[in-house]
Design brief:
alpha/beta; Rossmann fold; Dihydrodipicolinate Reductase, domain 2; 9-stranded mixed β-sheet; 5-stranded parallel β-sheet; 9 helices; 25% strand
């Protein structure tokens, strides 16, 4: 397929994520990187060294007829102005997450897309995370019974990377950086109305923004979701832990299968006490082996390039957008309330 048959993508912001986009797009049949732009000369040079053609200015990007799509991979605080300029120039836009820090700014971007009849999407790439897809398959199998609690964690021990992510003015902090991903995943897993939320920030290595957080979401059916991001965890807790009325599931870490244990019948008779520490307990005695089963769900393989393929198909009117803008808005609204919850140290209502 010749380049003229592909959609041309210009990457604006050629840092770590921008260069990652370049590598992901390179093998696609549907699109190609027609150029890049960054305000830093060393990143312009890095693009040249990667075999790409940097544009001399952002205005040159907007004027280039070969640019069908502008992909924004800059710090969060300048997403809106770049996106609106690109859409006013008739370009379709992919924006890195979090798309903005405030819902009103996102609404302006969506209104601009509608006015200019262009397609706008946010790069929620972790919908294609294999651990997420694997746990979803375990839940969908029905072996756990009705799920009542889900836990999702991302842990590291290096603090916040030493760049714009440490600055409030640039939209830094872990809730905006990682929380936007794991909350987006959780809302897909539990497609219900949220009634109340609570959030608490950590400030262990950084006073300006959160370097970790934990939050709880209460859903209308009674399902509870607990989410945590930590950057001072030298021993990681499981990536996923899910409880159902008939069983439990766990994924220990990235690229690990999902292990489930579930009941195949009611426990027979009274439990036999077991010795724990200095005493006996019936309450914590395990079920008999003949009344439980174990099943391991292998990793569900995904291709994150499907995000770009879907975006091009959406431009051509062949597919609906995989990452819908109403979903993005709901996550952003939730992030705003979680920030408020931490400030007030209160459980807050969310959806009426």
């Amino acid at each position: 397929m010749e380049n003229k048959q592909k959609k041309g993508i210009a990457i604006v912001g050629y840092g770590g994520m921008g260069s990652h986009h370049g590598r992901m797009i390179e093998p696609l049949e549907e699109a190609y990187v027609c150029g890049t732009f960054d305000i830093k000369e060393d990143r312009q040079q890095a693009a040249k060294e990667a075999g790409l053609s940097p544009y001399p200015s952002f205005e040159a990007v907007l004027a280039a007829p070969e640019v069908d799509i502008v992909l924004i991979a800059t710090p969060n605080d300048v997403h809106k102005e770049i996106a609106i300029a690109a859409m006013n120039a008739g370009k379709h836009v992919i924006c890195e997450k979090p798309v903005t820090m405030h819902c009103k700014d996102l609404q302006e971007m969506l209104d601009c897309a509608e006015k200019n009849h262009v397609v706008f999407s946010v790069h929620q790439n972790r919908r294609w995370d294999e651990d997420f897809r694997t746990m979803q398959e375990a839940i969908d199998s029905g072996l756990l019974g009705r799920v009542f609690r889900l836990e999702s964690r991302v842990h590291g021990c290096r603090g916040i990377p030493g760049d714009w992510r440490q600055k409030k003015e640039h939209g830094g902090g872990m809730l905006l950086d990682w929380g936007v991903h794991i909350i987006d995943q959780m809302l897909l897993m539990v497609p219900e109305k949220i009634t109340h939320v609570f959030c608490r920030f950590d400030h262990i290595t950084n006073d300006e923004v959160d370097d970790g957080f934990e939050c709880t979401l209460w859903f209308e059916s009674g399902v509870t979701a607990y989410l945590q991001v930590g950057t001072s965890n030298f021993i990681n807790l499981p990536r996923w832990y899910v409880q159902g009325h008939n069983g439990s599931a766990i994924i220990e870490d990235w690229n690990q299968p999902c292990k489930t244990v579930y009941a195949t019948g009611a426990p027979e008779g009274d439990a036999t006490p077991i010795v724990t520490a200095a005493g006996l307990t019936k309450t914590m005695a395990p079920r008999n082996d003949e009344n439980i089963q174990k099943k391991e769900f292998p990793i569900v393989r995904c291709d994150v390039r499907d995000f770009y393929r879907n975006f091009v198909a959406a431009i051509d009117g062949k597919e609906p957008q995989a990452v819908r803008n109403d979903q993005v808005m709901r996550v952003l609204r939730l992030l705003e309330v979680l920030h408020e919850s931490d400030e007030k140290r209160q459980i807050l209502p969310f959806e009426k």
